[in-house]
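Reproducibility note. Readers wishing to regenerate the assembly model reported in the main text can use the exact inputs given here. Chain order matters: entities are listed in the order in which they were concatenated for prediction.
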Amino acid sequence: MLSDWQQLIFGRLTASDFVHDPIMAGAGIGMAGALVLAMIGLTYFKKWKWLWQNWITSLDPKKIGVMYIVVAVIMLLRGLADALLLRAQQITNGSTEVLTSDHFQQIFSAHGTIMIFFVAMGLIFGIFNLIIPAQIGARDVAFPFLNSVSFWLFAAGMILINAPLIVGEFSTAGWLAYPPLSELQYSPGVGVDYWIWSLQIAGIGSLLSGINFFVTILKMRAPGMTMMKMPIFVWSALSSLSLVMFAFPILTATLGMLSLDRLMGMHFFTSGAGGNPMLYVNLIWAWGHPEVYILALPAFGIFSEIVATFSGKRLFGYKSMVVALIAITVLSFTVWLHHFFTMGAGADVNTFFGIMTMVIAIPTGVKVFNWIFTMYRGRVRFTTPMLWFMGFIVTFTLGGLTGVLMSVPAADFQFHNSLFLVAHFHNMIVGGVVFGVFAGVTYWFPKFTGFTLNERLGKYAFWLWIVGFLLAFVPLYILGFMGATRRLDHYDPSLGWQGLFIVAGVGVLLICLGVAFQVLQVIVSIKQRKENRVGSDPWNGRTLEWATASPPEEYNFAVIPTVTTRDAFWEMKKAKHHEVTPEYADIWVPKRSGVGAIIGLLSLIFGLAIIWHIIWLVVVSFIAIVVAIIMRVTSDDTEEKISAAAITKREMNRSAA
Amino acid sequence: MRKDKKRNLHRVWQVVISSFVTVVIIALLVFVTVGRDIPVLNPQGLIAEQERNLIIITTAMGLFVVIPVFIMLFAVAWRYRASNRRAIYRPDFESHRGFEALWWGIPCVIIIILGIITVVSTHALDPYKPLDSNVKPVKVQVIAMEWKWLFIYPDKGIATLNYLNIPKDTPIDFTITSDAPMNSLWIPALAGQVYAMSGMSTQLHLMANSVGTYNGTSSNISGDGFADMTFKVNSMNESDFTTWATTSTTSRNILTQDEYKTLSVPSHNNPETTYMLMDTSLYNEVIMKYMSPGGQSSDASNTDASGAKR
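Running the prediction on these inputs yields the following structure tokens for the assembly.
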């Protein structure tokens, strides 16, 4: 009787679910402790109101962008800690029994999921928020409130994926949770459900963001900015966002079917009773491969802006670049099967997908050559962003080489699921996406703060990263050739793999040191902000974001610029026309709203409730979400006016200072 | 003047440090690599050898693009560094049809060649394709279990657990299934891998060239004991193999349906075992049990709806 009531109220949650082994408990307590400390700090310094008014309820994409990046950086630290534990286990080869195989498997599943969904995606969407509106000469995104909802869904997913550190356990089925391993039969616990629902919630946020920014780019460009006059970063974002819109529904549907299997005992992907796991593998990669390009294309865009700016020269082959972006966008949907050539699809099918994969190398190669030729006949300043660019070309080209190698099906049979593969995709995602974001953050940092990041520390960080990166991943290529598969928590010591794992571990340590230098760089730069203060255009920029103030006003542009050429700001500077004092008009900006954060919180509760089978709470939180949405969409009072007089005052003050 | 000197010294210092780091890294990698077995590059079987050759050809073709890219990258970056005032500066130089045609064209040509290689090699090395040989192939049925490998020799009336004996220079015809989550059968020294999936039967053909012992593994995560899913492959002379197969039929371990059920209980590190095969249709039965509606894999039968831990 008692247990019936208990189950009705708490679902399958019991007190024992809070008990963890020391490492996990340590991590959980550490995270909770940091949170409590932050709260105490906020209370002590009386910052709650500031946090609520300036950040949580803000609909300003610049604020939301910063929040995305902060969350992603915290998750990067978590993912790195996971990586350290994985390598520690492999270096000691299980002899110290630091981790049980179950815990080890939870960690690599979490590492992959967090790094892709909550680090890479967070960083990319953060940069979209910060840069896209300003670069197209707009004041805001198309749907400011939706943008806030997207972020808070992302944050809810982030909390959900870290919750297993405190209650329950995480999935042990790898970052893509292939069935039948991820089905009830083999994974009856809450782990896979945590995986499903954190991705489902964050994924819906990504999809909404994708639509939002897609519409923003199509409908809100400054007058005169035709498609072929858009900055190349905006083109790369447009390509990436169209992939988001086409790919993320596949993820949502796939996760939905897997959760139906698990909640309702259905048989979409079970290995018996009519289900078919191969279907899942196809679907998840039909999302998964475009996902790689969702991350990589914006990084290409960032590098295109950086190499043009620091070469003091137009981007070489703009039209080629656009064609290449579109080609990659389309092709990325035609290659998913290369993730499982080994499934036995037959030679004809494998040949088709192998060749399509190689074809992607062509537009990607064109981009590399165009970047190099942007420097040709330029005046290249080797600032930190340019170092990241150089590092990117080297690692990304090597990753491309190993990628082409694996696109040949018969060769892939020897590389699939080995550490060679692991090294390859880290080459692409770290060397491509993460380096791109680091370059972008360093490049755009002064735009949003008014001061530059410390160059010396940035350069130290870069060198530690690049050396650490090579040390961490070259051994994995070699281990792949030796027949080492991924996800091994121990191996036969007589194989002689330990030395290579140690070198790889040293590499991870160097990367951690690099990250430490980056954290230090931000702290030191904030301390020295007075000395490093710069104007609105510190790098001699080319695109419209550099025409705004640093940091930009809430409305970005007091007067919306008219665009006549590519590299609009560069041309404006060249024209040097003396600005007559402009006529300011009233500007309507969205009002603050806490509903986005509330929807995020309710989604978090919904996620926890469905994971733990607390049926009443699932129903209540779902209804609450619907009510919140209805209340918001029926409200007319969503905008407020900044009067022309106020704008004049602000603009005058700034030019006086 | 003094500033120049200081800068030059700084540059020399940079070169020294970076060369030192490079040498240390290379030495370190060589030190931890030499003397180890690298089966993918040191194949012992017909298929793995062809796959190795394919890997080398593809790498060479890739380097054909990669090396010029690296040279161009550093040459252009150095030549057009901001401090080099002698280099031409043309801020509006933004397109050149000839150059662009070159780097759309050359990769296209390379990909066409690679594409042809892919068509040929993918068909030639299709794991489902029987090997050309005068020798009668040995059939092996593979069942991936939680967490061990069962190899059935249907024509010999024997089965082995966690090890595989094969005659050299003889085609081995594998049919592969799983009575567990998805696995992948990989013997890098002999051939690339193929998935093992429950309710399905995949195929792999390979042939060992020499006598020796090679490592086999599962390369797809299949649960708690995944890392223990390794096995040894002993390639032996024809006569040794025949002797072994004959003596094995008298093994005291008998693989009946009951024995298989006992074996199906999840376990790690099962010792290598040789069985006399009683149930010759075991492989098919293992596949078929996933075919029946509500059959063995039906989730409800294994766990209660609340998903209590097994």
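We highlight two features of this model. The longest strand of chain A covers residues 587-590. The beta strands of chain A are 587-590, 639-642.
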